[in-house]
């Protein structure tokens, strides 16, 4: 036989049996590729796997030829997007997927995938959005091998059946086998961000111990979509298929069993109870029953329990805003697509990988085909998702507004979440066509006392404890607990378990509706007064302790939003407690970088200081002085000191007297009186030591820094070492960090450069649950600049100085008074050691660094 030129050019696979092309990245999925090849071979099929360098042809030409000769396509995906060849816009992995559209495709995605590359994430989202393919999640090679064997066998049997005569395909025995499989809804949009949930719920349902699983969560979180996806995943495990029973329109629990009977095809008549009819029909046959929207008919729960007892092969998957409270029930809370804390300047690819952002983009493109995530709109999209608590329904409604509004304009209109998003698609249930309708549906299921409690709790911002709820609601603790439990069961009040005990919260959309109802009640003013009183007392009754200061500061951080509400209430209704509260809070503001906000409150209070008594004025002047120093408001700081001096002798309080001396010591360097600053700081230190006050550590730090400014290095080192030790005793990271930065500067001055570097690294090694304060970090950066200059690295020194300047400008701070002169001298030395252009460039680059990048620079990285 003559071989044609075309046949000569063809690239043939090893044999000509039914061929299954396997597409994946090579290195990260090597083991998975091997088990898939074995699974294909076990079915007497031929695996076709591209291996780089396996044949004497260019890679792109090789895999395309192999794919053109294949009958089935298997795609394996995990975290890597793959290599992009010359003259290609997509990787070989994506190119293979696009070229396979004409043959059957089986796709598998490995999880978890915490480092999945953004382009692979987008590709997976695209293949789902097309609606023609679905993928199966897996975790291990062994699980993948089983899935591939089963799916290939099913695919081949379906292809064989499709080729059979129509009469044979529609025989009664065939259609009677799986009456429920066609009841699963076919979704028209992709399910995004639920890959792990699908795996977890499906795994739970496969275990023999979990025969009743309830997906709980607030309205609009995506329980129904998740249930449908899980049912499709498990459908082929059941001879009858998965049976989907929608119950949103059913309001009488007695009608649930008849609806189930109709769905499974159980014959009912007047002589038999629906429960008996369903139980006899299902008998021992394995069946997955999906009951959707059961929250308004949870009274049927005992019947479902009886049904499970009588039908050994029955498994039930429920979606409901409240759990059924059956012993056989396994609850699976469906969480929102939360947007995590982001770094200073996250890149667009990182934002694009967030499930909430992916969902927004997908739905926005449905109404505006040219919508794309860009560096200009990515942060606005992420903030929209965050403001909407990651609630999928709210995100979908917001994305639909992209037809008219750019993300920035939409974000500006989110003041009222309930009404800003407008109506959703008409194919949504009526209760979900607006966010308001969804929330009202949920709240309408509550009893009157529960609705009243929900409205009262809307006064909290950022969550609350049982103790806080009991005080603000004015109810006995047992009754408060019962009502909180009821609201949690309805998925309106999520609970977080913390080391300090349970903490409750509320989605902002729910809180907005609840606040509307509270504002219409006659006791609104009383509720707000009790809220302010509780959080004012929380601060006032727990002044800075001598130990566990980190834990105390963390509690203040947890309650920060509630404290803001309380401060605003006091400014409006009763300013008397505020000077004392501010005197306690200023250290927290310092550690958390809240000085500009705090200064605004202090300024508002100072304008009304005539209404305060002498003690309150003294506390206010102290707080005004020490905060003014940090933000560089030198005039206000000096004016506050003058006010404190005028009050001397009128305040019989040793603590306030020592505090006034400490404030004075911070401010005297502004008028070049460092000697006076050392004397007053030493007086404050002696006073605090006599009183055993934890403020002695801050006084010792001030003494040490004044001694440094005066060149008394050994005395300074002794005091700063004491501060480092006290910081450990008090559990105060701010003290330890700041002391180590100053000790590092002393070590540089004495030529101990390795010791300085070690101290700097330790100064920014905060615990996981804390962050180095901006003030401490700027101290560290200046010390790092000294170290770099000592090592003849003027460029690094300029970068560190620029970073300190940039962080201060962002936080509204200035250099500490006692360090300003030495820092100015350091800048001059770095300038002299650098070319003018090099210094300016490095200083400017440092000013662009964010907090985390600056920490990396101090640790020795490049920032």
From TrEMBL:
It comes from the Bacteria. It comes from Geodermatophilus sabuli. This is Predicted ATPase. Residues 166-187 are annotated as: Disordered. One of its GO terms (molecular function) is ATP hydrolysis activity. Pfam families: AAA_22, DUF4062, HTH_77. Residues 19-98 form the DUF4062 domain. InterPro entries: AAA_22, DUF4062, HTH_77, P-loop_NTPase, TPR-like_helical_dom_sf. Residues 210-307 form the ORC1/DEAH AAA+ ATPase domain. PANTHER family: HTH-TYPE TRANSCRIPTIONAL REGULATOR RV0890C-RELATED, REGULATOR-RELATED. Residues 446-518 form the Winged helix-turn-helix domain. SUPFAM superfamilies: P-loop containing nucleoside triphosphate hydrolases, TPR-like.
